[in-house]
Design a protein that fits this description.
This protein has about 325 residues and is of the alpha/beta class. The protein has helices at about 10-25, 65, 85-90, 105-115, 125-130, 140-150, 165-170, 195-205, 225-230, 240-250, 260-265, 280-285, 305-325, and strands at about 1-5, 30-35, 55, 75-80, 95-100, 120, 180-185, 210-215, 235, 250-255, 270-275, 295-300. The N and C termini lie far apart (about 45 Å).
């Protein structure tokens, strides 16, 4: 049996797909499984033995052209609700072609049927969640497991997977053991949070009963020296698997809503996530930490001093709760 899986979007979403990938492997143990990724997100699964062949979609090649090389597959699953992934799967002409889209993406729901013969509709919708605070949206992991079941994969594996080795752990062994890891991404500096407030947050977290390590995303590398100037330990520009190893040794991870959330979950670390104020009800359900102790905090609507002070207080209180549990 030949199976094609695709996920060409973000690293965090690919991490959230690893239970579905493992479910397909466990359900079809003798199948040959090919996974198509992007060049950007491939690093998250390059060591994953649930996949027999890993292929990156070339940026310059149309998905329909690239997908044609997989004709002869028995089963193809688009693990992302993107036109790119749907077209890759459709072009394979597999006997069973599975994918999903969202409840109010009317055009996507119509066009999906041109490429797929089994379509799942996700209930996730920002506007509907804002209108109805009681609306329940399954976590993306659980939605993807339902998608795998729609494709016939019945042996359910519900744990996130990232693979690191002792060399990765050795590379970060110089850092304090069991630290609070504050992962700094661009969203700390905008829309209800600021760079200055994040620097103050680092000072307040450092006063807790644990060491503090600052992890900087690539887009925030220029800010690393500002944290160092305040006496904080900074792990800047770590290669991906060393960054994962840093999270593995954390006592708690603090991050904005980004792929770091899902790295922390894969490493089974308690996690505090600061979500955007807008669409909090949807995002905090669909992309919350999966299967680990967590605290979810909503950014304020404005970045005035009082609102920022309250945000920091909620974060510090949540971290204290997680490290003392």
């Amino acid at each position: 049996m030949k199976i094609l899986l695709t996920r060409t979007d973000r690293i965090g979403d690919l991490i959230l797909s690893t239970p579905a990938i493992a479910t397909v492997r466990a359900s079809f143990p003798d199948a040959h499984i090919t996974l198509v990724t992007s060049h950007y997100n491939q690093v998250a699964v390059e060591r994953n033995t649930d996949v027999d062949r890993l292929v990156a979609l070339p940026r310059e090649v149309r998905p329909t052209t690239f997908g044609a090389q997989f004709r002869g597959c028995d089963l193809a699953i688009a693990l992302a609700p993107l036109a790119t992934d749907v077209q890759l799967v459709g072009a394979s002409k597999a006997q069973v072609r599975v994918g999903y889209t969202y409840v109010r993406r009317w055009l996507a729901r119509l066009t999906a049927r041109l490429w797929l013969n089994r379509v799942m509709v996700s209930p996730a919708d920002p506007a509907l969640c804002e209108r109805d605070p009681g609306r329940v949206v399954p976590h993306e992991v659980d939605q993807l497991l339902e998608l795998a079941a729609l494709a016939g994969a019945r042996t359910r594996i519900a744990r996130l997977r990232l693979d690191i080795v002792d060399e990765d752990r050795a590379a970060v062994a110089y850092l304090p053991p069991e630290p609070i890891v504050l992962h700094v991404g661009q969203r700390w500096f905008e829309n209800g949070s600021t760079l200055e407030s994040t620097l103050r947050l680092a000072d307040e977290l450092a006063a807790l009963d644990a060491a503090l390590v600052i992890s900087c995303a690539a887009e925030c590398a220029d800010a690393a020296h500002l944290f160092e100037a305040r006496g904080h330990t900074v792990a800047n520009a770590l290669p991906f698997h060393q960054w994962v190893a840093l999270f593995e040794r954390a006592r708690c991870v603090v991050t904005v809503d980004t792929g770091a959330t899902h790295v922390a979950s894969a490493m089974r670390r308690p996690t505090l996530v600061v979500f955007e104020h807008r669409y909090f009800r949807l995002n905090s359900q669909e992309w919350s930490p999966y299967g680990v102790p967590s605290v979810l905090v909503r950014k304020p609507e404005s970045a005035d001093d009082a609102a920022l002070a309250m945000l920091r207080a909620r974060i510090v209180s949540g971290v204290r709760q997680l490290i003392n549990a």
